[in-house]
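Hey, I'm writing a tutorial for new members on how sequence and structure tokens pair up, and I'd like a real worked example in the thread rather than a made-up one. If someone can provide the structure for the chain below, I'll link this post from the tutorial.
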Amino acid sequence: MGRALFDTGDFLAAARALACDQGPAAVTIDSVTQRLNAPKGSFYYRFASRDALLGELWLATVLAYQDGFVAAIDAGDGLAAALHTPAWARLHLDDARLLLLYSRHDFVQGDWPASLKRGVRDQAQRFEECLKRFARLAFGRVGPAQLRRATFVLAEVPLAAVKQHLERREPPPPLVDQLITTTYHAVVGGERTKLARRG
């Protein structure tokens, strides 16, 4: 009966709700099954462990976030990629809180199935490739300094700009976009000016 009444999505939704309310540490097999009024056997039919459930939740969230980010990089629009973080947070506030207020290691740990390991590895490589493509386009080459600048303007600045708003459970205001845009132009524009002078 447990197999028929509950599916994988139900367990992920329950874990997501618990993590949003109380953080990833609140997600246990007991708390999830109690929230669903589901038998533990139904949980174990779908997930090998709590770690596997949390890993699947994190991976699904980061992949949903990455879609818009990768699309902006594919279009050659670095500023849109930087602004994707506040835009996505406004549309998906709870998911943004999970992804941006907690470390990946709060979710991704333990011994996972091979498919989960592969998915986490693939998304990390996908993000790294985006940084390299942006660095080459914006700064002319892909070296340690260029990758550091790319990480700063595409990931670190947007995260810093939205974090306090996510902590207060409020959508990032328009000012956040202005701050990200100003910083982006200062870093990218300044480096392009240096390259032009050298050329």
